[in-house]
Amino acid sequence: MTAEPTTDPTTSALEGPEPDSYADAEQELETILEALEADDVDVDELSSRVARARELITWCRGRLRTAEVTITELLADPDD
Q1: How many other CB atoms are found less than 10 A from the CB of residue 40?
Q2: Mean pLDDT, residues 29-36 taken together
Q3: How is residue 41 annotated by DSSP?
């Protein structure tokens, strides 16, 4: 007996647009990080960039947790 895949409530907590995929979220995070490391972010924009990065990290963690649960369920009983 397999349970329904779990959806993480953090995946709907984004204030900005939801990424199309984990790879897209990772790319956006990389872009934010590069801008922060290069000091290319205006002070007025800094807090919104950091907030967006935090949202994306939370979203990615939710996707990873969901994938982990799904994989664990699939591997738990190969006879189902």
Answers
A1: 10
A2: 95
A3: S
Sequential DSSP letters for 52-72: HHHHHHHHHHHHHHHHHHHHH
In a domain? residue 58: yes
- Split into its structural domains, the chain has a count of 1
> pTM of this prediction?
0.74
Is there a domain that residue 1 lies in? no
Residue 46, domain extent: 20-74
For the purposes of burial, counting CB atoms within 10 Å of the CB of 19, is it exposed (0-12), middle (13-18) or buried (19 or more)?
A: buried
- Continuous H helices in the chain: 22-37, 43-76
